């Protein structure tokens, strides 16, 4: 078994579904960059992230974040957002759970909840804080602030992951841009 900061134990079934989700998400990003239709790949990734969540031990909130991101990118995020909010504990201090909550609330247009969850994310600092800044700008309807935050996320991604090949897009920035078009 493998362990992570927010998960007690990661099962083999969880890992298999997670691997499927990550592979489908990568194919979707490649299709997007090539000008093709990424939605079918993102739909597969969304389903695989959900299956991974359901196979995981409690506190594996990153699977919910992945599910929401790919659902937004597939253009069908509302069911995933409702599902996510039903899965989250009311009192979690995890920045990953807060990220899932903020994304789900953003999809559903609950801006007060976005701001509350973003506060938990911001307290963690780093990439969580940068994403929280963008989500609050989205909730506030601050187009200039959102554009600036997305640029910062893209720059951070490019600098942090310059050594990677085949992943030339910051999916968080792409998700935030897509959210502006689908919010109620």
Structure description:
The longest helix has 22 residues. The N terminus is likely disordered. It is built from nine helices and two strands. Strand 1 and strand 2 form a beta hairpin. Helix content is 73%, strand content 4%. The chain has a two-stranded antiparallel sheet with strand order 1-2. Helix 6 runs antiparallel to helix 7, helix 7 runs antiparallel to helix 8 and helix 8 packs antiparallel against helix 9.
Taking pLDDT < 50 over at least 5 consecutive residues as the criterion, the unreliable ranges are 1-8
Strand content: under 5%
Number of strands: 2
Based on the coordinates given, report the CATH architecture: Alpha Horseshoe
Following the backbone from N to C, one meets helices and strands in this order, namely: EEHHHHHHHHH
Give the quaternary arrangement of the chains. Answer: single chain
What is the third-level CATH name, the topology?
Answer: Serine Threonine Protein Phosphatase 5, Tetratricopeptide repeat
Q: What composes the largest sheet?
A: 2 strands, antiparallel
- Please give the CATH class: Mainly Alpha
Mean pLDDT, all residues: 82
Number of helices: 9
Termini distance? Answer: 42 Å
Number of domains: 1
SS-derived structural category: mainly alpha
> Rough shape?
globular
Cα-based radius of gyration, to the nearest Å: 15 Å
């Amino acid at each position: 078994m493998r362990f992570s900061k927010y998960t007690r134990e990661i099962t083999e079934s969880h890992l298999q579904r997670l691997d499927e989700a990550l592979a489908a998400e990568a194919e979707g990003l490649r299709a997007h960059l090539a000008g093709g239709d990424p939605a079918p790949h993102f739909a597969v990734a969304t389903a695989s992230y959900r299956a991974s969540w359901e196979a995981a031990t409690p506190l594996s909130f990153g699977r919910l974040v992945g599910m929401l991101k790919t659902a937004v990118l597939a253009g069908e995020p509302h069911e995933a957002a409702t599902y996510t909010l039903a899965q989250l504990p009311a009192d979690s201090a995890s920045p990953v759970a807060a990220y899932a909550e903020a994304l789900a609330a953003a999809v559903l247009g609950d801006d007060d909840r976005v701001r509350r969850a973003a506060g938990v994310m911001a307290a963690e600092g780093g990439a969580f804080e940068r994403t929280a800044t963008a989500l609050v700008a989205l909730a506030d309807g601050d187009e200039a602030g959102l554009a600036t935050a997305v640029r910062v996320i893209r720059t951070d991604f490019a600098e942090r992951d310059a050594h990677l090949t085949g992943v030339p897009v910051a999916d968080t920035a792409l998700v935030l841009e897509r959210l502006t078009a689908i919010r109620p």
